[in-house]
Design brief:
Layout lengths: L5 E5 L5 H14 L4 E4 L6 E6 L21 E9 L8 H11 L6 E2 L2 E4 L4 H4 L2 H17 L3 E2 L8 E8 L2 E7 L25 H11 L14 E5 L5 H8 L3 E5 L6 H5 L3 E4 L14 E4 L5 H14 L4 E7 L5 H16 L6 E4 L7 E7 L3
Bound molecules: S-adenosylmethionine (SAM).
S-adenosylmethionine binds next to helix 6.
Length: 359
């Protein structure tokens, strides 16, 4: 497929700077020059790659490798000054050039907008654009083949009525979810909305084909900062016993399950329990303090897996995060592949870490 110069990254609104810092570091490491187009709060970053660099292998920019990108689109172009009518024409002409030297096939067509208040105002307009675009793709000779997993999907992201990014998502580099958003239904009997953060983390970090291996009835978890119990709920649902550490009250329904021991202790002084399987932590505190506690647990190797939120409300949140990640790897004496970090859809001013000590 011919290379085009603009890549597109969705992120949570107000995290554009962090995404740019992350991208900039990766581009520099790979000696690729690019300009970044974004505004604070816009919910996306466009990377305009210079000259021949656009023809290089950019697979290091996969969604899995990036903390702050929800979705990664490539081989594309940013179209500005779209006309007020017959917008399909410039869009189809861009697609014709994107597909110039490749099989005229696509898996799906997605027409969307950034996940911001301003973006949402374009929702109806995007919907209306679907039928003319599908007809246009047929005219262009592009065939939809839903059954194949090795072909790209086409994305049209309207940034406003006059500007759109046209690009492709590739199964290896992109999120499988529409715009990179894992939408989950809030379980009515869960004690807090936070439950969705851990549910998303499980689905994101644990391999689908081995999912059951992480939740055996004999397993035990420690949940630091557990009250009222949204995270504990996720383990109880799977039949895993939880030591819930918090001075706050746990929801009575969880206590009735017989699968929860409520330990009214300070999480930072709590000594690692021997032979547990899971450690999770959702405490609102300085990332440096939570990191120090995590390192204590990791060094003792008393659990197999850790999921922990690091809250990032400060100004230099990217620098602070990088410092914490380095500290976990170096002081915890783990391989960097054992530590994963993602700004999940249900995370706000925080990121989620997964540490795999079972390797
Ligand atoms: C964001 S809430 C956790 C929500 C929980 N994960 C859920 O899904 O319901 C943070 C919790 O951490 C607890 N916490 C804060 N500092 C703590 C400490 N030093 N030791 C134990 N718990 C602490 C608070 O009492 C609060 O219940």
């Amino acid at each position: 497929m011919s290379q085009h110069r603009d890549m597109f990254f969705f992120c949570r609104s107000d995290f554009e700077k962090e995404l740019v810092m992350e991208l900039y570091g990766l581009f520099q490491m790979n000696r690729i020059t690019a300009d970044f187009i974004y505004e604070n709060g816009c919910g996306y970053v466009v990377a305009h790659i210079h000259g021949d660099d656009a023809n290089r292998d950019l697979s290091f920019l996969s969604c899995r490798n990036l903390i702050f990108a929800r979705q990664v689109l490539g081989n594309g172009a940013l179209l500005t000054d779209l006309p007020d009518t017959r917008r399909t024409e410039p869009v189809l002409s861009a697609l014709k050039s994107i597909y110039a030297s490749s099989e005229p096939l696509y898996k799906n067509l997605f027409i969307s907008h950034p996940d911001t208040q301003q973006g949402k105002e374009l929702a109806k307009f995007c919907k209306k654009f679907e039928t003319p675009m599908q007809n246009g793709l047929k005219r262009l000779g592009l065939k939809k083949v839903f059954s194949r997993d090795d072909i790209p999907s086409i994305h049209i992201v309207f940034l406003d009525y006059k500007t759109a990014y046209i690009g492709l998502s590739f199964p290896d580099c992109s999120s499988e979810f529409f715009d990179g958003i894992m939408r989950l239904k809030f379980p009515k009997d869960a004690p807090s909305r936070s439950t969705l953060k851990l549910e998303e983390a499980f689905h994101y970090f644990l391999p689908k084909e081995k999912y059951r291996e992480y939740f055996r009835p004999t397993f035990q978890a420690v949940d630091l900062g557990a009250a009222p119990g949204g995270w504990t709920y996720q383990f109880v649902k799977e039949g895993v016993f939880v030591n819930a550490v918090d001075h706050g009250a746990m929801h009575p329904s969880l206590m009735k399950s017989g699968l929860v021991a409520h330990l009214e202790e300070d999480a930072f002084n709590f000594q690692p329990i021997k032979g547990i399987d899971w450690l999770v932590c959702d405490i609102v505190d300085k990332p440096s303090r939570v990191t120090k506690m995590l390192v204590k647990w990791i060094k003792k190797r008393e659990c197999k897996w850790i999921i922990c939120n690091l809250k990032l409300p400060m100004k230099k949140r990217y620098e602070e995060l990088v410092k914490c990640l380095h500290q976990i790897v170096s002081e915890g004496r783990i391989d960097s592949s054992q530590l994963l970090c993602k700004h999940l859809y249900h995370d706000r001013e925080e990121v989620t870490l997964f540490v795999n000590l079972s390797k």
